[in-house]
Each structure stands twice: as C-alpha cells, then as structure tokens.
C-alpha cells in the first residue's frame, strides 16, 4: 500500500475504532469500495491490462467526444440559495424566424414539451450523452447538475449549516430548475438512480405539478425505497460488516479530502475487479465509454460522496408513485444491476400497472451508457406515447457500447 493509502487507512481506523480492526483494514476497504459503488460511485477501469487502460485514458482525455455536448446555459437557485446549473437544448435556434413561428394569429403559441433529465449519484448531466445526442432537434430538453455535482454549486445547507442532504431537498431543487428552465408547457421527467428518486420526491412535494403539467415519466435503474435491504452481491456476513463500518469510514475519508484525492487513482486500480461489478454487466465495454464514466466519477469530491450517502438509507417514496398512475411511464433497469436491482424496478411497476417495464439483458447500473441505443429507443417510444410528435430516435454511431457477457 502507498504511503498515502496507509495514511487513509489509519484515518479510517481512528474513526471506527475496534470495528475497523475486527473487520481488518483490507476487508473494510473492500467493503467501502463495494458499498460506494453500490450507490453509483464506481465505474470499472475496464480493460485488463494497465497499458490498455492508460491508452484508453489518453485517447479519450485528448480527443474523446463524450460529454462534449453543450446547450444554452442557465442557473436556478435552490431554497437554501445553492446555485444549480442547467442547460437547454432547444428544438430550433432562437432566431427571428423561430420567434415568428411561435406566434399564431397574433397570439403566443403553446409552450413546447420539455423533457427534463436528472442524473444519478456522483455523475453529472453529461451521463446522458448518448440520449442527448439522439434527441437533439427532436424535442426540447433540459439537463441539470444536482447540487454539489457537475457545474452546480456545493450545497449551501451542507457547507454553511452542516445540514444533511435529503432526497426531499433534491426534489425541491428539481422544482427550482423547472421553474427557471421550463416554467410553462408539458413536461416529461426522466431520472436515473438518484435522479429517479429526485423525480419521486418532486411528485411527493408538488403533486399539483405532476397533475397539471407532467405528461410522461421514465424511471431508469432506480428505487422507491428499501435500499437498506440491498446486499450488492455480497455475502450476508460481509454486507453486515460493511454496514457497521461504512458510516464511520466515509466520515473519516470525507474529512481528509486532499489525502483521499491523491490516492484515488491507485485505489481504483487496486479494486478494479470489485469496481467492475457495480458498473457494467457485459463482458466488454468500449474503453472510451468506460473512461468517460470514470472521469465523471473522479470529478466528484470524496466529501460529497460521504455527504450524500446517508440519504439513500432514508429514501422511501413508494407512496409518491401514485401521482404517476394515470401517465405514460417507462420503468427500465439492467437485469444484473447490483446497485438498484431490477426487483426494485419491478416494485415500481407494480404500483404503476400501466407502465412499460423493460428489464435489459446483460446490463448493469449504468445501463444508459452500456446499452444506449436500447435506452434511447424506449425513451423515444415514451415520448410518442406521451403525445410528443417525435419519431423513434437511435444512437446510430454508438448503438451498443458493450459485448454480450458470459
């Protein structure tokens, strides 16, 4: 273990005391990585050889197209003052011709449908890259970065008042983004993992918004609750040990930000096999796509990782699903997702019997990156069912980033 890694282990040992010693430094560290991945943090280093990993990193870092799509930028302000960053992809540019086209016989034309995408834990709006590329020009879209993620500001309630992050707070943040980026017109809400929980929290707090404006919703690789029961593919004894030591370990790591960030690369390589399990399920994923996801994860500071993690244990929004009962809904998950297992999507679909349930074969938690064409096609079909005049869209150049697994 490197000197930095040893310092981190000692810091964590101090935080959790005897519990850490009983589990053993190596075992507890594995548990930390596994449980962190279980919340969506980990993305596999992917290729077997160190040389291949380095080549993939260099190729993508120098000229990779993923995450390069940009829209019209905007900012919303959360209830606690946190500035939330979003981007809008319009159907047509804001030209004189476009402005004239939005007026009918001297009256303002109805606002277009807006599809709002909410990303998962330790990702950013760029995690929707493939879907964004396919839907450009088809429908108006909004992509935003959740508080403390991407280009959004660190949560003021957390940094200034040391308040815990809650899923309800994220739902309120989404409302602020909608008020700024899509204040009128029909909405389709799309959320992956934590983003899906955010959509549920929005419905729980603002049911009138769902009733009056939402015409469709998609829940991708997410859960309505009972995340404390997920074992992430670990033996029962191992998972129990992880649950005992993880809060203290994360707290310790979150207090040693500079130390942890220096050691992150080496730690990720050390636990590459474990990380792989919690990201993609297929045998091979395009190395450039894996590196893209890896960069998204690396941009999330460890103190943000620690700050958000407790919120998932408290998440329970099963009752909020009733607000979507009369709407076209897509519920989609990977069949080998160890983070939010497909059973959680089936539970969501049970509450919404008219929803389309899609369990994607050979897919893990980052299904929208692993099988982008399939996810985009199902989203395009949802837009058609929601009454949006849009043809089915495909990601032709990147139809599948994975090869079938064994």
Automatic annotation (TrEMBL):
Gene Ontology molecular-function annotations: hydrolase activity
UniProt keyword list: Hydrolase, Membrane, Transmembrane, Transmembrane helix
One matching Pfam family: Abhydrolase_1
Keyword Hydrolase: yes
Phylogenetic lineage: Bacteria, Bacillati, Actinomycetota, Actinomycetes, Kitasatosporales
InterPro entries xref list: AB_hydrolase, AB_hydrolase_1, AB_hydrolase_fold
The organism of origin for this protein: Streptomyces mesophilus
Residue ranges of domain AB hydrolase-1 in the record: 114-372
Positions of transmembrane segments: 25-48
The name this protein goes by in its record: Alpha/beta hydrolase
Keyword Heme belongs to the record: no
């Amino acid at each position: 273990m490197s000197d930095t890694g040893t310092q981190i282990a000692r810091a964590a040992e101090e935080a959790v005391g005897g519990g850490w010693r009983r589990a053993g430094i190596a075992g507890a560290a594995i548990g930390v990585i596994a449980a962190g991945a279980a919340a969506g943090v980990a993305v596999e280093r992917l290729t077997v050889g160190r040389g291949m990993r380095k080549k993939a990193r260099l190729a993508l870092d120098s000229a990779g197209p993923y995450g390069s799509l940009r829209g019209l930028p905007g900012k919303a302000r959360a209830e606690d003052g946190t500035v939330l960053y979003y981007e809008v992809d319009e159907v047509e540019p804001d030209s004189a011709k476009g402005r004239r086209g939005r007026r009918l016989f001297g009256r303002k034309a109805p606002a277009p449908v807006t599809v709002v995408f909410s990303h998962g834990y330790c990702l950013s709006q760029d995690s929707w890259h493939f879907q964004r590329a396919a839907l450009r020009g088809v429908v108006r879209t909004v992509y935003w970065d959740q508080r403390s993620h991407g280009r959004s500001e660190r949560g003021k309630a957390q940094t200034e008042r040391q308040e815990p992050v809650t899923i309800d707070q994220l739902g309120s943040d989404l409302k602020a983004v909608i008020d700024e980026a899509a204040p009128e017109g029909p909405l389709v809400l799309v959320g992956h993992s934590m983003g899906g929980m955010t959509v549920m929290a929005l419905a729980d707090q603002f049911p009138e918004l769902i009733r009056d404006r939402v015409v469709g919703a998609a829940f991708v690789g997410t859960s309505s609750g009972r995340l404390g029961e997920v074992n992430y593919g670990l033996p029962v004894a191992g998972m129990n040990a992880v649950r005992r030591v993880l809060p203290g370990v994360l707290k310790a790591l979150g207090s040693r930000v500079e130390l942890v960030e220096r050691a992150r690369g080496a730690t990720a390589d050390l636990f590459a096999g474990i990380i792989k399990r919690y990201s993609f399920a297929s045998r091979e994923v395009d190395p450039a796509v894996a590196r893209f996801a890896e960069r998204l994860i690396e941009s999330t500071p460890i103190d943000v990782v620690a700050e958000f993690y407790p919120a998932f244990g408290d998440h329970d929004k099963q009752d909020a699903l009733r607000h979507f009962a009369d709407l076209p809904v897509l519920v989609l998950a990977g069949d080998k997702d160890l983070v939010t297992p497909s059973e959680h999507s089936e539970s969501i679909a049970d509450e919404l019997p008219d929803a389309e349930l899609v369990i994607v074969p050979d897919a893990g938690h980052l299904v929208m990156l692993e099988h982008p064409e399939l996810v985009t096609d199902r989203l395009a079909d949802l837009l058609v069912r929601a009454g949006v005049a849009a043809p089915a869209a495909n990601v032709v150049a990147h139809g599948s980033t994975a090869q079938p697994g064994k």
